[in-house]
């Protein structure tokens, strides 16, 4: 059984006989997308872990792309009816949209076992464990029986619009140069199956010999990385023409370490 943001009002914290529970099937996976408290934030979805695997994309509370202004969301590419419906319950409805995308991307939506979404942003939950990360959605059952804990919470990020899956990497950049600068550093990844847009690693003070680390969620499975593009800019005209480079750039895949 796959629970697509199971209802919170009248169901959360009730006996298992009246709500979805892991005892309802040999394998129950759940996608939580709208788990804000019902009052005052009007969350439609349950926040508690109730399955064998519970996925919390983007933390499970607010979904990227659901904060568009009401006019742009109602006058949607999919039509006024679907746009109006999404405006009313966008976070709640993301669950089935993620699920449908997961059928198309069997290698996508990797959920990282973690204590919370905040911890997910640290090294403690990266990369995937030795047995791999479960795929949120249609192919979650490939991990049936692989986790022995009573409840397993899994975290990941998604895109703002379809196509929703993202692939997670850890990027470490050690700068080279003669003097401290201010500005930003961007990285783009190139692989044998495609390339990414530029992702910002750091903004502000840039000091040679310092190492800056950032987790990035890229918009395509680019395969084996073949090239990394490093760019920096100080955002203002400097007659001294300062120079910064990358002494090293280390890229680690979340999927296989």
Automatic annotation (TrEMBL):
Compartments in which it is found: Cell projection, Neuron projection; Secreted; Zymogen granule membrane
Single annotated GO MF: galactolipase activity
A GO CC term assigned to this protein in UniProt: neuron projection
Keywords: Cell projection, Cytoplasmic vesicle, Disulfide bond, Hydrolase, Lipid degradation, Lipid metabolism, Secreted
Domain PLAT: 167-257
EC code: 3.1.1.26
An annotated GO BP: lipid catabolic process
A Pfam short name: PLAT
Entries under InterPro entries matching the protein: AB_hydrolase_fold, Lipase, PLAT/LH2_dom, PLAT/LH2_dom_sf, TAG_lipase
Record keyword Secreted present: yes
Recorded topology in the membrane: Peripheral membrane protein
Name of the protein this chain belongs to: Pancreatic lipase-related protein 2
Species assigned in the record: Trogon melanurus (Black-tailed trogon)
